[in-house]
Amino acid sequence: MEEGEMTIPHLFTCPISLDLFTDPVTLCTGQTYDRSSIQKWLAAGNLTCPVTMQKLHDPSLVPNHNLRHLIQQWREMGHRLHPDYFTTIDPLVSLKHSLSSPSSTFLEKLQALQKVMDLTDETDSLLIEMGFLPLLLKLVFEMVDPGFSQDYVNFVEQGLVCVLRFLPLGELECLNMLKEGSNLESFVVLFERGSMMMKQSLCHIVGLISSSSATRELCRMIGKNQRLLNMVICVVKQNSEISEAGIQAISALCCLESNREKLVQQGLIDGLVTYIWNSEKKERSLAAMAMARIEQVLGSESAKEALIKNPNGVKAVVKMVFRVSEEEGSESAVNSLMKVCEGSLEAREKAIVSGGLTQLLLLLQSQCSGRTKTKATTLLKLL
Fold first, then answer.
1. CA–CA dist 276, 291 (Å, integer)
2. How many structural domains is the chain composed of?
3. Does residue 167 sit within a domain?
4. CB contact at 8 A, 250 and 233
5. How far, in Å, CA of 334 to CA of 373, rounded?
6. What CATH number does residue 2 fall under?
7. Are 185 and 142 in contact (CB under 8 A)?
8. Domain end position, chosen among 81, 115, 144
9. Per DSSP, what are the bridge partners of residue 48?
């Protein structure tokens, strides 16, 4: 039977031509079109997505290899797929419609999202093919409710969890939608006014942004946003259950030297010192991560000054030199003390008063590496 005489599955038809896809490509909005059809649309001067009418911040056309593969399977099987396939597809199409429909309330969107979250992991790749990831990003960062109603808060909390579930399977480039000023502002507002759960998820997203070369420019933009940096540092200073995510976000942002200086200007040293000073045994691995970030930024004179001026600054670093049953962080602490003590009598005096000599002697008697012991010996002589 010819394809023209067959009923083509809705998922396999281009929304513009209504014909079977021959070269499916996906826009930044998550909508998929046949390449020739969308190219004609764009060539005509249109700067929006034909289905959603959303302005295209990025006109790139990304080949949808997964959809092309499904269509190829469908053709090879004589236009037949396993009966369970469309049993799966139809509910997903309905869920996507409920999420994207302007008439759906946040409660209705939340109910649809909960059904998506209840699906097994095996369905995730299909959800990615259908454009759920860019759709969720659009809903979370382009539909901020000024009143922060409870239904809205619940939807955004679950939306962010779902985004984090899909991001490892999709393209991190889709996060570049945050480069638009209004979307980045929404990100900041959610951080400022959102729940602890929202802030934790947003910290994880910052970490993912910093991990990819495809989103490197966005990472720089975040580093220039003083409000956002301040909020991440505040999360760390609170020493709450989400401080771990804050420490990881800061560590990720520090991949760029320009971000490190901006973080120092926003009070990074005070935030990390507060975290280390208040950290409990269960969080010591994160204290070591915080200590490594202090060492990393101490090439800056402003960072050294902030550490020395903080009442607990040198004390916190001395505390990290030697901890019973915990070697991690010792080398960073010794290196940090070397950096601040070499050019500051005040820092050396604070290190001695804080028990630095005793800590270094204990470290030398421990099972730490030879390199750390060598540095500790050098520091002892300096003090």
1. 8
2. 2
3. no
4. yes
5. 9
6. 3.30.40.10
7. no
8. 81
9. 55
Tell me the β-bridge partners of 20. 13
- Residue 340, both tokens: 């601040």
What CATH number did the domain enclosing 366 receive? Answer: 1.25.10.10
SS3 assignment for 339-358:
HHHCCCHHHHHHHHHCCHHH
Q: Is the pTM of this model over 0.70?
A: yes
Tokens 């599955």 belong to: 9
Scan for tokens 């204290």, then name that residue: 287
Residue 209 lies in a domain: no
Q: Which domain holds residue 49?
A: 1-81
What whole-number distance in Å separates Cα of residue 12 and Cα of residue 33? Answer: 10
- For the chain, the residue count is 383
The full DSSP string for 208-226 is HHHT-GGGHHHHHHHHT-H
Structural domain contains residue 151: no
What is the residue-level pLDDT of the chain in tens, covering all 383 positions? 344 445 677 778 999 999 999 999 988 887 899 999 999 999 999 999 999 888 888 888 988 876 787 788 777 766 555 555 555 666 777 788 788 887 789 999 999 999 999 887 778 887 887 788 999 999 999 888 889 999 999 999 999 999 999 998 877 889 999 998 899 999 999 999 999 999 999 999 999 999 989 999 999 999 999 999 999 999 998 877 789 899 999 999 999 999 999 999 999 999 999 999 888 655 556 889 999 999 999 999 999 999 999 999 999 999 999 885 566 788 999 999 999 999 899 999 999 999 989 999 999 898 888 888 888 898 988 88
Q: Which residue, 81, 101, 120, sits at the end of a domain?
A: 81
